[in-house]
TrEMBL record:
Coiled coil: none annotated. InterPro entries: DIOX_N (IPR026992), IPNS-like_FE2OG_OXY (IPR044861), IPNS-like_sf (IPR027443), Iron_ascorbate_oxido_reductase (IPR050231), Oxoglu/Fe-dep_dioxygenase_dom (IPR005123). Residues 164-270 form the Fe2OG dioxygenase domain. Pathway: Alkene biosynthesis; ethylene biosynthesis via 2-oxoglutarate. The keyword Iron applies. Its EC number is 1.13.12.19, 1.14.20.7. It comes from Dyella halodurans. Its cofactor is Fe(2+). The keyword Zinc does not apply. This is 2-oxoglutarate-dependent ethylene/succinate-forming enzyme. It is an enzyme of class 1 (oxidoreductase). Belongs to the iron/ascorbate-dependent oxidoreductase family. Keywords: Dioxygenase, Ethylene biosynthesis, Iron, Metal-binding, Oxidoreductase.
Length: 311
């Protein structure tokens, strides 16, 4: 397998054993797979992109009025050059918005999962933004069912661990690069923090994943395929059977550098109280447990947000 494969998720219903085996093999090898046949309507994806682009086109002052200081950007707007990949000297060349899960305000997780805010200037931002959040959440749950079966867990293993997940939809804008010889990149090499990430519209060039051989492999999707990758929380829970793979977004070395790039990752997180200890099914003589301390997903998230300078 030289390239990250594209697999049709409808085969989970029509050809389950082979699909689960192929998906599992792609994740063990790359930590990444592209998913087609997902059924998310084109109109929802295009409509959401359109509202996000109109938001990023607003004046800086207006956008900054949606920054919520002291919250790590958990909701609302985070400006250009704030997030900095772990161990990087230079901030990323991106601005973004965060939409979180709507939960009852008397939920035990209410304190760590604040209500969403919405930009009043952009009419359909909320229905498109939350519509895409819910569609990707459901697709993520389908991918997690296959990932569970592949490591001998019950199909619904992740259900009660993600139904209140502190997940985030992150529309990103990478503006045109106008400065010559800039040391910053669009997104420095990093691993995602969460269980799995679903990335809609990685069709514009730039995304690269680090292979086991240490080479950077570009990913561009076919058709409407969605890129789905493993994050550090699932890597920890599965004792690295599912690897969280480094990836980055490079600056184009051609005229495309003068064009903006937009992307929308959905970071599917576990519920805040899920303990991320390696599962017994993933510990063996060849792969002894790699962790001897316990941590909840909320504690883990707080540690990681400090490392990337969001809190
Ligand atoms: O913009 C992309 O294609 C990838 C973004 C990404 O990796 C991230 O935000 O974690
Ligand atoms: Fe990422």
């Amino acid at each position: 397998m030289k390239n990250v494969p594209t697999l049709d998720i409808r085969r989970y219903d029509s050809d389950r054993a082979a699909f689960v085996a192929e998906l599992g093999a792609a994740y063990r090898e790359f930590g990444f797979c592209c998913i087609s046949g997902h059924g998310i309507p084109r109109e929802l994806i295009d409509g959401a992109y359109d509202t996000f682009q109109r938001f990023f086109a607003l004046p800086t002052e207006t956008k900054l009025s949606y920054r919520v200081p002291g919250t790590g950007g958990a909701r609302g707007y985070t400006p250009f050059k704030v997030e900095t990949a772990k161990d990087s000297k230079h901030a990323d060349l991106k601005e973004f918005w965060h939409i979180g899960r709507e939960i009852p305000r008397d939920s035990k997780f209410a304190e760590v999962m604040p209500p969403n805010i919405w930009p009043s200037e952009i009419a359909d931002f909320q229905p498109y933004g939350y519509g895409l959040f819910e569609a990707l959440d459901q697709l993520g749950s389908r991918v997690l069912r296959a990932l569970a079966l592949h490591i001998d867990l019950p199909e619904n293993f992740f259900e009660d661990k993600t139904d209140q997940g502190n997940s985030i939809l992150r529309p990103i804008h990478y503006p045109p690069i106008t400065e010559e010889n800039i040391p910053n990149v669009r997104a420095g090499a990093h691993e995602d923090i969460n269980f799995i990430t679903l990335l809609v519209g990685a069709s514009a060039e730039g995304l690269e994943v680090l292979t086991r051989d240490g080479e950077w492999l570009p990913i561009t999707t076919e058709g409407d395929a969605i890129v789905v990758n493993i994050g550090d929380m699932l890597q920890r829970l599965t004792n690295h059977v599912y690897p969280s793979t480094s990836h980055r977004v490079v600056n184009p070395q051609n005229d495309n550098a003068r064009k903006p790039r937009y992307s929308v990752p959905y970071f599917l997180h576990p519920n805040p109280d899920v303990v991320l200890d390696p599962l017994p099914q993933t510990i063996s003589a060849d792969n002894p447990s790699r962790y001897d301390t316990s941590i909840t997903s909320h504690e883990y998230l707080m540690q990681r947000l400090r490392e990337i300078k969001l809190i």
